[in-house]
Amino acid sequence: MSQEHESNSTSAKPHVIIIGGGFAGLSCALALKHAPVNVTLIDRRNFHLFQPLLYQVATGGLSPANIATPLRKIVSRHKNIRVLLGEVASIDTAEKRIGLNGFHLDYDYLVVATGSTHHYFGNDSWEAHAPGLKTIEDATRIRHQVLKAFELAEREIDPDIVKHFLTFAIVGAGPTGVELAGAISEIARHTLQHEFRTIQPEDARIVLLEHADRVLPPYPDDLSEDARRMLSELGVEVRTGVKVTGITAEQVHVETADGSEILPARTVLWAAGVAGSPLGAKLLGGNSEALAHGGRVRVDEYLALPDHPEVFVVGDLAFALDEKDQPLPGVAPVAAQQGEYVARSIRASQRGEKPKPFRYFDAGMASTIGRGKAVALIFGRPLRGGVAWLAWLFIHLMKLVSFENRVLVFMQWAWNYTTRNRSARLITGADDDTDET
Amino acid sequence: MSQEHESNSTSAKPHVIIIGGGFAGLSCALALKHAPVNVTLIDRRNFHLFQPLLYQVATGGLSPANIATPLRKIVSRHKNIRVLLGEVASIDTAEKRIGLNGFHLDYDYLVVATGSTHHYFGNDSWEAHAPGLKTIEDATRIRHQVLKAFELAEREIDPDIVKHFLTFAIVGAGPTGVELAGAISEIARHTLQHEFRTIQPEDARIVLLEHADRVLPPYPDDLSEDARRMLSELGVEVRTGVKVTGITAEQVHVETADGSEILPARTVLWAAGVAGSPLGAKLLGGNSEALAHGGRVRVDEYLALPDHPEVFVVGDLAFALDEKDQPLPGVAPVAAQQGEYVARSIRASQRGEKPKPFRYFDAGMASTIGRGKAVALIFGRPLRGGVAWLAWLFIHLMKLVSFENRVLVFMQWAWNYTTRNRSARLITGADDDTDET
Question: Do B76 and A195 touch (CB under 8 A)?
């Protein structure tokens, strides 16, 4: 591809480059649709992914397209926003320029919203055996692995190995780990009922491992306790206060208060650690030492780099503090509000005004565990069971970007609820199963 | 995996092994659900794929799960049918035994229904540049490639290369080629409208190359002529009577009546040749010389191997002749009827009766070209335009295996028809695009 330096000099309007089309980047772009700026939204993918429902793709309840909307479609009517597909290779904050696919692009304002990725606490070899859940490919890979485990168990003779195929370990009992554990338990106990002739899928053992002393640590103690009870009702073995010290293709090594232990499991899923995307270090001139906890980029109260007020970091990649000097969590509402805030800031600075510092408005959170089982904290008010589950359903449906997906997801949920089936149960993609002969 | 010889001697019922869960194999299995036999249905995949709609996945109109139904789900209530996931490695017709995943399974009746695969007429190097459309992975690969071409064009500077990215060549003007060409043209002219800032997607050139002198050769002349006109209305360049002599990453070489020609095109799709699955040769003891035209297995009027009346070959893999000694086409209705016929034959032979020879009941065929554009031949009666299109819609909806998918597909079609959007437009999977920097 030819090298080109695309200058913005022909246009009088300032150029805003947004890197990342997740909740933070997309909400920023959309909030600039009527602003006197030109926006370039760059993503490696051609779609916005609704990550809170990714676990439902991983467990066969929804199709990838149900939770993904083409970015071009979302912004098609806003002529001041263009979308570029590509991966940003370099950021030069001194020259106000980024490098992308052999091009350079100059910016007046830069918004970095590339999110986070799995983090195995320095044990990169675990990744091969314990996939995390961040992308569509991760989700179809997990779907493949979970469903394949039942298939391999069905054709296995050795009863011990059958047990190992039917043991699913989930590392990390935050919202994603809890959702995965609950969904896999429902698959084993209900979806796959009557479908096998040799094994009993309901014999599957689902073990949720958590280092903290309770599940769903962001919630108050009593909701964590409720969640734990609901998980047990679904047949999930919850083991808190345990530390994972090793993961191989066939085992998880854990350290408990009583010593160390080996858990034989052919399927291990990673829902424990995330870290800021690698673009964070590039933004700081390659100085990864300057990154905050979890590889995130420290920003000031305006979500900007302290020495570059025109460079913003929003969403999971940002290390921003709330009014109590606590770091804001890496969740979708924080990301969306940060993106909108930066759009308002840019408009204010064009008018020569100084924006107020960012404040997160916390409306609450909701986590689902299974059919009719959830916990939620809405405006500080704890909800549990069916009410929390309906709240969760409603919030997630309404936040889906396209109306079509809202209708399709609602229909499939209604269907899945009624029949306990999960129709998107496809084993697709390359098979990395070495047992295959 | 341990070696095991699983004998059927404990059961008094005859054992029917069916290899392949497509139209032929699945219809055979289901027709045996009340028969006094034990059925083992073996497939490499855990789902039945509704191949006639695969091109809609390849062009972003439907999600893979919409046209796939888990095999276990379909047969879950029929306790005499078990499903095994795996690839058959060997067939020993003398010992009546197959090898699978390190096991051996004995059969009393064997039904081979493994279908067909792409065939590049000995030019295997073409496959890398011109994917065919047989599997879910093929479909998402084509979807990736087609959508990516527009993205690469959008960020390209050289106007000639932009043109090459926006040229789509489809080799073969049978039903699949015609459907792909029509759908890509609609994507370019309608779906992607307003979505790009640099290129005009409607400038895309879609070229349909066919060796015969008309499109849709299985149809009567006048319907072929209608189809050609509808393709032209959609902006597809139809070139019949041309022979493809080479395919590279950037060009298609063609021979016409006037000489040879090079067509620069960065996207080439293969809809020309298919051949019987490799299991056909294994069935004949590795003697691929004995295969009929297109690598298919010659069967007698009972769809059995002449010297093995207990071994049946059905569907695309079978080379069966109709009453006029013409080979039956490799289409879904033939496959389904053959599968059911073999099930009836097996039941008859259990009663000591000799079945009548197989006769294909030809109800007709329908091929879609685009929105409101189709041709059909229903009970020998030609249909064209909107009527044919509605017939096509109705037939395909009704043939989908699960009611849920019927509802979901219908809704998405209604949506796509109204909005001209295609929501399953995801660029996913590994990127084999070497232009990426």
Answer: yes
ipTM of predicted complex:
0.90
Annotation marks residue A179 as catalytic: yes
Please report the pLDDT score of residue B7 as a whole number: 46
Residue type, B203: D
Looking at residue A288, what is its pLDDT?
A: 86
Task: For residue B8, name the pLDDT band (cuts at 50, 70, 90).
Answer: very low
- Encoded tokens for A316: 């999971």
Q: Does B5 reach chain A within 8 Å, measured CB to CB?
A: no
CB contacts of A436 in chain B (<8 Å) are 86-87, 101
At B134, the pLDDT band (50, 70, 90 cuts) reads very high
Q: Identify the pLDDT of residue B435.
A: 37
Listed in sequence order, the DSSP H helices in A15-111 are: 23-31, 54-58, 71-75
Tell the residue number behind the tokens 């089936």, with chain if given: A421
pLDDT at B276: 95
A147 Cα distance to chain centroid: 21
Could you tell me if B167 and B207 are in contact, meaning their C-beta atoms sit under 8 angstroms apart? Answer: yes
Q: Which helix (H) or strand (E) holds B419?
A: helix B403-419
Please tell me the distance from the alpha carbon of residue A344 to that of residue B144, in angstroms, as a whole number: 36
pLDDT of residue A3: 41
Contact B68 A426 (CB under 8 A): yes
Sequence-distant (≥ 6) Cβ neighbours of residue B94 within 8 angstroms: none
In this complex, which of B64, B411, B427 lies closest to A428 when CB atoms are compared? B64
Q: Which helix (H) or strand (E) holds B171?
A: strand B167-171
Going from the C-alpha of A393 to that of each of A133, A370, A371, A386, A406, the distances in angstroms are: 20, 11, 11, 10, 11
pTM of this prediction exceeds 0.90: yes
Using a CB–CB cutoff of 8 Å, tell me whether A407 touches chain B. yes
User: From B81, which residue of chain A is nearest by alpha-carbon distance?
Assistant: A197
What is residue B1's predicted lDDT score, i.e. its pLDDT?
39
